Amino acid sequence: QSALTQPASVSGSPGQSITISCTGTSRDIGGYKYVSWYQQHPGKVPKLIIYEVSNRPSGVSNRFSGFKSGNTASLTISGLQAEDEADYYCASYTNTRSLVFGGGTRLTVL
Amino acid sequence: DVQLVEPGGHLVQPGGSLRLSCTVSGFTFSSYAMDWVRQAPGKGLEWISYISNTSSSIYYADSVKGRFTISRDNAKNSLYLQMNSLRAEDTALYYCVREGRGQQLIWGQGTLVIVSS
Question: DSSP code of A68?
Fold first, then answer.
């Protein structure tokens, strides 16, 4: 199972909005309503920020939002803050009931 | 509080075996499917295995199929990963992960496995 495709890096200035894309196929993202997103700061454990494409767990800022169209999911972070600087990973189920992750996107807040 | 604890770090020689464990608390373990996910140093996340709450369904990534075995003991609130025929490329931080409704993955702290002679 190939990894989902994410841009290696994105950047933005404080207060701006950025979007991270996550592209798969009809055998994963396109075939299921389950896409999740994780934030990982250096040396830390991944933290769930979006599940079921667009739902936020309790305690996650509403500056994080998710969307899916066809085989591509996206994560938007609005009102960028310095603390948002981290790696972000998308995940999806596949048609073989495995999980597949994106390669990760490094967000730099300028 | 939900807790998933994978004790210690491990150094093993190529070709060797190792059994990872994960002990959970703060939730009803027998109600949740579980996964193992690993992260090689400086690399991304790689799913390696899934087990349903009753152990009736088990899946593996191609990279570990035939070498790794996932299991669980609901009476002991514990998840396991038996790793055989270890290779240098298996060196990684191994996370125990709870699968919640809607693909809500909750992660343990991870345990480091180093495969080296």
Answer: E
If one counts every other C-beta atom within 10 angstroms of the C-beta of residue A11, the result is: 13
Q: Do A46 and B45 touch (CB under 8 A)?
A: yes
| Contact status, residue B14 vs residue B87, Cβ threshold 8 Å | yes
Residues of B with CB below 8 A from A3's CB?
44
Q: What letter represents residue A17's amino acid? A: S
pLDDT tens, residue by residue, B84-102: 999 999 999 999 999 988 8
Chain B, nearest residue to A103 by Cα: B44
Count of helix runs (H) and strand runs (E) in chain B: 0, 11
Residue pair A109/A41 in contact (Cβ under 8 Å)? The answer is no
Closest Cβ–Cβ partner in A48, A55, A100 for B47: A100
Would you say B93 and B48 are in contact if contact means Cβ atoms under 8 Å apart? no
Is pLDDT above 80 for A77?
yes
- Please tell me the predicted confidence (pLDDT) of residue A1: 67
Give DSSP secondary structure letters for B19-67: EEEEEEESS-GGG-EEEEEEE-TTS-EEEEEEE-TTSS-EEE-TTTTTT
Q: Is A3 on the interface with B (CB under 8 A)?
A: yes
Angle at CA of residue A70, ends B100 and A56, nearest 5°: 35
pLDDT-based confidence at residue B103 (cuts at 50, 70, 90): confident
Residues from chain B contacting residue A1 (CB–CB below 8 Å): 61-62
